[in-house]
Design a protein that fits this description.
By secondary structure, this protein is α/β, with parallel strands linked by helices. It is 27% helix and 21% strand. A hairpin with a 6-residue loop joins β9 and β10. It holds the Pfam family Sua5_yciO_yrdC.
Length: 206
């Protein structure tokens, strides 16, 4: 049975954030709010937790397209190849925000992702998500939680999320109602930015 923790996004309670970080460090899985939909995440450096998420999603870990949720741009350089000035300008303009950027991965990627040529990077505009990552000291590997309901697609009510996931994950954070629109995905690994999925983020800024 997982814990159901209320955290306020305007001013996240440090003790509650520490509880979440402790669970992540111990290989736990956490459902947490972002600036778009709720996400399912684990510590990027914990192999067992990564395997658990892949199993839940019904995919092989090396085939998974998970996002790396970072605190800010300084985190990003640990996992992606050196980025040019124009790419950096795009990232700086858009982040934190409701975007996932696909960038060329570097040799520092965790062993589970070594085969991947690109990685998806997120810096959500949500204090809860960013504080967890800041305190943890490294990114969370994350995936959106979908709903079987084809009309809704994403569950936005934390209590309903807890009801569904309480026996699968270790913590569900109630950070208020989520959004039911996913992030905009933009591929920056080629010559020109390419919009892969139009979501919550405004694509006119590129």
């Amino acid at each position: 049975m997982s814990q159901f923790i209320k955290i306020y996004p305007e001013n996240p309670n440090e003790k509650e954030i520490d509880k979440v970080v402790k669970v992540l460090r111990e290989g736990g899985l956490v459902i947490y709010p972002t600036d778009t939909v709720y996400g399912l995440g684990c510590d990027i450096s914990n192999s067992k937790a990564l395997e658990r998420i892949a199993k839940i999603k019904g995919i092989k870990l090396d085939k998974a397209n998970f996002s790396f949720v970072c605190y800010d741009l300084s985190n990003i350089s640990n996992y992606v190849k050196q980025i040019d000035t124009s790419t950096f300008k795009i990232l700086k303009k858009a982040l934190p925000g409701p975007y996932t950027f696909i960038l060329p991965g570097n040799n520092e990627l965790p062993k589970e992702f070594k085969k991947k040529k690109t990685v998806g990077i997120r810096v959500p505009d949500n204090n809860i998500a960013r504080e967890i990552v800041r305190k943890l000291g490294n990114p969370i590997v994350s995936t959106s939680i979908y709903d079987e309901d084809e009309i809704l697609e994403y569950t936005t009510d934390p209590e309903l999320i807890f009801e569904k996931w309480q026996n699968i994950v270790d913590i569900v954070i109630d950070g208020g109602y989520g959004n039911n629109e996913a992030s905009t995905v933009i591929d920056l690994s080629g010559e020109e930015p390419e919009i892969i999925r139009a979501g919550k983020g405004d694509t006119d800024i590129f």
